[in-house]
């Protein structure tokens, strides 16, 4: 199977978790795009979705699924989203597509976070994938200097603005041995909006597309 076929398969497997769920939290990215495409057959049962990005909002609307404001919905039963890296503790690195802040908000507001990933995303130690950090634009250089002090090499994602009108620093060369600790440390740097480590609120279920099957963590 190609990587895209694996993404499709794992996205299909996530449908099991949305049975009888009226309002679904929906993430962002190429894996989630497959999930959204599958939702077309469930339109009649779905009241709406809370979306983590403008891109996902557009895709959901295109297939006729109403996109709702999280403030009006309260706690979500299920949130389905992809990841850039997954470790055996269901802790993640996210934000390769720059949607990390809204993703983290929806994950926090959801009872069950179902992460869908192909096997290339599995690692023992997070950090091989450059760690995305969303930063208020005027704080970019200051935050970059603070990230260097932590041992990383931040690279400004040029010509990219997030849905929240901020910038992204991708931090290379980090071995994230203590994900919760590093998440807290980076979150505490003034000017950081969100760090792409999802460890304080990890996934509850990780579905991994591997070979011809989907395994569950
Ligand atoms: O900002 C983007 C998100 O965190 C995505 O969920 C993540 O980058 C995985 O994307 P993909 O499914 O395209 O690999």
Automatic annotation (TrEMBL):
Enzyme Commission number(s): 5.3.1.6
Entry annotation: catalytic residues: 103 (proton acceptor)
GO terms for biological process, alphabetical: D-ribose metabolic process; pentose-phosphate shunt, non-oxidative branch
Catalytic activity: aldehydo-D-ribose 5-phosphate = D-ribulose 5-phosphate
GO cellular component, one term: cytosol
GO molecular function: ribose-5-phosphate isomerase activity
InterPro entries for this protein: NagB/RpiA_transferase-like, Ribose5P_isomerase_typA_subgr, Ribose5P_isomerase_type_A
Pathway entry: Carbohydrate degradation; pentose phosphate pathway; D-ribose 5-phosphate from D-ribulose 5-phosphate (non-oxidative stage): step 1/1
Subunit structure: Homodimer.
PANTHER family assigned to the protein according to its UniProt record, in alphabetical order: RIBOSE-5-PHOSPHATE ISOMERASE (PTHR11934)
Similarity remark: Belongs to the ribose 5-phosphate isomerase family.
Protein name: Ribose-5-phosphate isomerase A
Organism of this sequence: Methylobacter tundripaludum
Lineage of the species this protein comes from: Bacteria, Pseudomonadati, Pseudomonadota, Gammaproteobacteria, Methylococcales
Gene assigned in the entry: rpiA
């Amino acid at each position: 199977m190609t990587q895209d076929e694996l993404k499709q398969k794992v996205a299909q497997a996530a449908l099991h978790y949305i049975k009888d769920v009226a309002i679904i939290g929906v993430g962002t990215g190429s894996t989630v795009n497959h999930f959204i495409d599958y939702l077309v057959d469930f339109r009649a049962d779905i009241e709406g979705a809370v979306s983590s990005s403008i891109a996902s909002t557009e895709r959901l609307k295109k297939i006729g699924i109403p996109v709702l404001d999280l403030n009006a919905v309260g706690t979500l039963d299920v949130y389905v989203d992809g990841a850039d890296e997954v470790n055996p503790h269901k802790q993640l690195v996210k934000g390769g597509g720059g949607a990390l802040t809204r993703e983290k908000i929806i994950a926090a507001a959801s009872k069950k976070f179902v992460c869908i990933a192909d096997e290339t995303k599995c690692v023992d130690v997070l950090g091989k994938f450059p760690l995305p950090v969303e930063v208020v634009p005027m704080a970019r250089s200051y935050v970059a200097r603070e990230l260097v002090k932590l041992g990383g090499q931040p690279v400004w994602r040029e010509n990219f603005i997030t849905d929240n009108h901020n910038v992204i620093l991708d931090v290379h060369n980090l071995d994230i041995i203590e994900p919760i600790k590093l998440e807290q440390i980076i979150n505490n740097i003034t000017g950081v909006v969100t760090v792409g480590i999802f460890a304080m609120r990890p996934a509850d279920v990780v579905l991994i597309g591997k070979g011809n099957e989907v395994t569950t963590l």
